[in-house]
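Sample log: Protein tyrosine phosphatase.
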Amino acid sequence: APAVALTYMFWVQGYKLNEAFNLLMSKRSCFPKLDAIKSATADILTGLKKKPVTLTWSGDNCSTVEISGLDIGWGQRIPLEFDEERGLWTLNRELPEGHYEYKYIVDGVWTCNEYEPITSPNKDGHVNNYVKVLGDNADSISAAVRMMAGDAPIFLEDL
């Protein structure tokens, strides 16, 4: 619910995102994800198209492989399907343009795939895999980058 309140303040009431966040935090300690709100704003206002993405985990020496992060957040998991012919666990998903971090959970153990791009350590020292989904429309990408860079509300007439 805090993210909904923050988004309402940002989208409807015209607060700068950081101002809305500080006001919300002064009333209630919570942890809404500012980057997720910026991403959703960019997706809605620019109409970013989804692109197919395939993620794979190699090996048949495990019983379950899941992914967390991506567009579903760190509290959710998506199971990968095992392709016996190729000996790969795969996930086919359509994602809007953007940068997505994720991690594999192999038999309950969180890990990165060393054969896919890996982030630098974050403030907590964690590293994740990531995928960049690129679009075809330079104007929508440019508008999304402008929205993600600042914290001021951007309206359709600004695009």
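Observation: Residues 143 and 158 are 9 Å apart (CA to CA).
Observation: The chain has a mean pLDDT of 82.
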